[in-house]
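User: Please predict the structure of the protein below. I'd like the answer in C-alpha cell form so I can feed it into my own downstream comparison script.

Assistant: Understood. Taking the following sequence of 360 residues as input:
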Amino acid sequence: MPFDLSAPASTSTQIRPYRPVALWLFGMCFMILVMVSLGGATRLTGSGLSIMEWAPIMGALPPLSDAEWQRLFRLYQQIPQYSLLHEGFGLDGFKQIFWLEWAHRLWGRLLGVAFAGPLIWLAATRRLPPGLWKRLLGLFVLGGMQGAVGWFMVASGFEADSTAVSPYRLVAHLVLALTLYSALLWTALDVWQPMPSVVRPLRMLRRLSLGLVAMVAITIVAGGFVAGLKAGLIYNTFPLMDGHLIPQGYAALQPFARNLTENIPAVQFDHRLLATLTAMLALGTVLLGFSAKPSASLRGALMAMGAVVTLQYVLGVATLLYVVPVSLGTLHQATAVLLLTTALVLRHALRSPLASQAQL
C-alpha cells in the first residue's frame, strides 16, 4: 500500500514531525521480537499446549481460584502430551508450563493494544504521513490473522498420539510473524528516512543486499522445520553429521520433496548448509560494501551485519553441540530476527531513489 512522504519530507525539519511515528513503529518491532522469543521458549519447554482454550478476551486473566486451576488442569490431562510425556507431574508441574504460555498469549494481546490505540489516535489527529493509515490498518489485520494461525497451530497438538504441534503449522505461524515484523520494520524505516542516504550505491551491492534478505528468510524457514521436527536433538556434532558431510538417509523419503520438510537428517543438513551460505554471502556483502568507501550510515549497517551474522552462526553451532538447551535455543531464535533486521536495514539503505519516491 503506497503512502507519500516525498512532498513534505524534502527537508530535515519537515521529516522531523513524523519521527515519533517511526519510533512507535520501531517499538512495535521490538514487541514482536519479544513475542518471537517467548514463542521459542514455549516450544523448547513444551509449554505451548498447556492452555486448551482460545479465549481472546477472558483469557487475558490468569486462573484466580483453585477450582479454576483444577478445571484447566483436567482439560490438559485429556490431551496426548500429558499421558505420553507428563503423566503424574501434578498441578504444580502444570502451573510451571502454564505461566510461560499464558505470558506468551498475554504479550500478544498487549501487542495488539499497543498497535491499535496509537493508530486510532494518530489517524484521528492527522499525525500520520498521508496514506500511511491504510498500510497500518492492513498490518493490524495481518496481526489478527497471526493470532488465529497461532491457535490453528496449537490445535494440531491436541490430535491423537501427538505431543507437539504440526511442523507445517509451526512454520506457517513463524513465517506470518516474520512477514508482519518485516513489513513493520520497513515501514518504520520509510518514515524515519524517506530518501536513501546512499545516493549511488554499487549495483552489485544492491543486488547482494536483496539476495541476502532472501537467504536469511529461507534459512529461518528451514530452521522452523528443524524446530518443528526437533531435529536439533540428534547429529550433535559439527561440521560432520555422524561422521559424514551429507548424512546417511538424506533422501530416504519418497517423493524426494518430502525430505526437505519431513526427514530429520535432510532438514538439519539443509539448515546447516543454508546457514553457511548465508553467512558467506553476508560477509562477502560486508567486504564489498567497505571496499566501496561507504557513508557513515552505510558503514554502520555493514558493521552490524557482520557482527550479527557471526554471532548467529556461533550460536547455531553452540545450540547444536549442547543439544538445544532452552537458553541457547531461545537466544538463537531471537538473534535470527536480529539478523533479518540487519539485512532489511542494509537493503533499505541501498534502495533506489526512484523506489523511495514512489514509497512502495
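That's the full C-alpha cell string. Confidence is low (pLDDT under 50) at residues 6-13, 355-360.
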